[in-house]
Amino acid sequence: MSHQDCAVLVVEDDPELRQMMVVMLALEGFEPQSATDGQDALERLRTADSRPRLILLDMMMPKMDGWEFCRQRALDPGLRSIPIIVLSAAPRDRLNVDAAAFLSKPFDYEALLRTIRQHC
Fold first, then answer.
1. Contact 38/83 with Cβ under 8 angstroms?
2. How many of the other CB atoms lie within 10 Å of CB of 32?
3. Domain map of the chain by residue range?
4. What is the CATH number of domain 7-119?
5. Fewer CB within 10 Å: C terminus or N terminus of the chain?
6. CA dist., res. 89 & res. 8, Å (int)
7. pLDDT digits over 66-115, tens only?
8. How far apart are the C-alpha atoms of 20 and 110, rounded to whole Å?
9. Which pTM was predicted?
10. What is the pLDDT of residues 50-75, one digit of tens each?
């Protein structure tokens, strides 16, 4: 199944995990993009010719963490409509962010793909 019209931005500071998710999404027919932290993600989103339809967001990152990214995204009318799937080891009740879905790390790839498909 092809999801060529569904670009997904992976925001993850762990280079191996980020690359693994990008490869997995590409193999599943999505259009993966990646960012190393929240600041990098905001810069990419604000300068992109076309924006992703979905953001996969790690919460604990250097420079700008997921919480600050969510605060900045909420202030930007052009970005706040892009759904976020939070990927975090933190308990959901401590995350306190507006997200379409939450998956605990380590996550099951099939569950991640199902969740992505629901939002693309």
1. no
2. 21
3. 7-119
4. 3.40.50.2300
5. N
6. 21
7. 999 999 999 999 999 999 999 987 766 666 788 899 988 888 889 999 99
8. 14
9. 0.91
10. 899 999 999 989 889 999 999 999 99
Listed as own residue / partner, the contacts of 62-70 with beta carbons closer than 8 Å and 24 or more positions apart are 62/13, 62/37, 63/37, 63/38, 63/39, 64/37, 64/38, 64/39, 65/37, 65/38, 66/11, 66/38, 66/97, 67/96, 67/97, 68/38, 69/11, 69/38, 69/39, 69/41, 69/42, 70/97, 70/98, 70/99
Do the strands 101-104 and 54-58 form a parallel or antiparallel pair, or are they unpaired?
A: unpaired
Cα–Cα distance between 54 and 106 in angstroms, integer? 20
Q: What CA–CA distance (Å, rounded) separates 115 from 68?
A: 23
Q: Which of the 8 DSSP states describes residue 52?
A: -
Beta strands in 37-114 (DSSP E): 54-58, 84-88, 101-104
* Residue corresponding to tokens 């992109």: 48
